[in-house]
Amino acid sequence: MLYVFGFESIGVVVSDLYFVDPDPGPGQEGAERGVRLEVRMLERGELRGSIYSAQPIAVGRPIWRGDLLESVAGTPGSHDRTHHHPSFTGWEPGYRHFVEELSADPLGWVAARLRDLDALLAEAGVSSAEVDPRDGDALRDAVPEIIESIRRLLERVRSGGAAQPRVEDAVSARVGWL
């Protein structure tokens, strides 16, 4: 499942994720599943036909990532692998940042983060000049809808209806849009 919330120059994308790292860090062994969200640049392409043609849209480079993950072997609701990546170098995320407040209240923490686009951009090292000035207000207004989508998707993950492996006993896997 992939949700895309698009504004003038940025978007928020949300997807379920099942993940097995073939070379995990200490304490990160085993499969993970949950919801991943990213703030991304959006790019509007030139029309490829008449004024009535479909608008080409590209979900471009990532700015920030939140991973509301849990270990598959752990207790549902533990948020034991929940973290975020405050910045990217090109398409590669920085290190995982585990934040106690994020694990304690993932949806509340993410909502607060998305409501302050300027702070999110500053921490990511992205100039606010790259983002349409209307996007901060538009994103802030959409936060309740985004959070509700994340909540519903987390419920689907926990009920077994999303973020499922395609191959059992995989030593490396990444199932999901993001």
The general outline is globular
Largest sheet: 6 strands, antiparallel
- Based on CA atoms alone, the radius of gyration comes out at 17 Å
How much helix is in the residues?
A: 25-40%
Query: Helix and strand succession?
Result: EEEEEEEHHHHE
Detailed description of the structure:
The protein has 178 residues and is an alpha+beta fold. It has one domain (2-175). The chain is built from four helices and eight strands; from the N terminus they run βββββββααααβ. It has helices at residues 100-104, 106-115, 117-124, 135-159; strands spanning 2-6, 10-20, 32-44, 57-71, 83-85, 88-89, 92-93, 173-175. The strands form two sheets. Strands 1, 2, 3, 4, 5 and 8 form a six-stranded antiparallel sheet that branches. It has a two-stranded antiparallel sheet with strand order 6-7. A hairpin with a 3-residue loop joins strand 1 and strand 2 (10-20). The longest helix is centred in the last third of the chain and has 25 residues, at 135-159. The protein starts with a strand and ends with a strand. The model has no long low-confidence stretch (mean pLDDT 93).
